[in-house]
Design brief:
The chain has 198 residues and is mainly α. The chain contains seven helices and no strands.
Length: 198
Amino acid sequence: MTTAGPGSSSYWFGAGDREVLAETSRLWGLLLVSGVLFLILGFVVLSYDTESLAVTSILLGLAFIMGGLSQFALASVAQSWRWLWILGGVIGLAAGVVAFAYPGETLVVLGLLLGWFLLVSGIVHVVFAMTNRDVDGWWLGLISGAIEIGLGAWAAGNPDRSVLLLITIVGIFCVIRGVVDIVRAFRLRKIRHELRPA
């Protein structure tokens, strides 16, 4: 299928793995767009000076929905642990809907939603990274998952935090997620080119 040598990203995978890589690498553009959107949202969130709970709810809702949709996209190509990706997507979408539907609710609810979403998302990323250590760039998922778990524990452990602190957590999450998605997108693009028949 390919003439890639030992230095290439796709050389070390079997024929079945190459088929999975070929299928997954088709999504590199979607992952790139997701990464850019997460970066933009992260920078907007971090630069936004707000004391308004309604604006905070909208920004949190956008972050939750984007995170949930990206979890579903990953579930569509996952060969194992698909249910974890789906669970993360459901929690992200549900949290986004709640954030939009109840913008006047207290920071406790928003902090708990944010904390639990980040905890589940981080666990999914860590589990996926650890079970796929033979995949090029597996450590990106491990690092981003560990950061998500830390931010999630921080937010869930103290849900009565200020609006500014919640916005900062969301902004950091979005920037990290954006960078990881962009790096993964270009890695998948490289693999896609390596897997093309000569």
